[in-house]
Design goal:
Helix content is about 55%, strand content about 10%. It is mainly alpha-helical. The strands form two sheets. Strands 1-3-2 form a three-stranded mixed sheet, with helices on one face. It has a two-stranded antiparallel sheet with strand order 4-5. A hairpin with a 4-residue loop joins strand 2 and strand 3.
Amino acid sequence: VLLLLLHIAFCHLLLKLFKHKLDSPNTNIELYLNFIKNIPLLTIKNKSDPLLEASFERINNQFLSNSVEKTNLQWGQQAFRKLAHYNFHNDTITISAIFKDSPQLILDYIMYHEMLHKYHRFQQNKGRFSYHSRQFREDEARYPAQKQIEREIELIIKNKKRNQRTGLWRF
């Protein structure tokens, strides 16, 4: 079974690499994608951070009716391009360390976005993947003051970058 999954995963990666679209559904690819979508059910949840966990619980309770199963939660590096990420393969939400000191509202919005990835999973059509489906975008837009929060996130990034350039090593 493991050998078959590896073979299917390899074929899937080749299709993705060469941007080949499948004209009709392929049973093996569909089995693989269903397997990937269900990995979070089997993943051990042993990574957590109190600040991230509190944010996860607030968002799950307030916006998702406690329907999202707990996930691994961790801080990433001080990244300015990849601000956060939900990894389907190890059921982990990783948030850039630049947000460690951010207001709760900012952290909660980022957490909400990543939790929506877990909630909606991903869509696949003819070999093309969509992680931000129409329904995903509609749910994301329901977050109060979404546009204002996104502007504040841009300011945080800009300020952190500037502080990094003019830090202790300035001569």
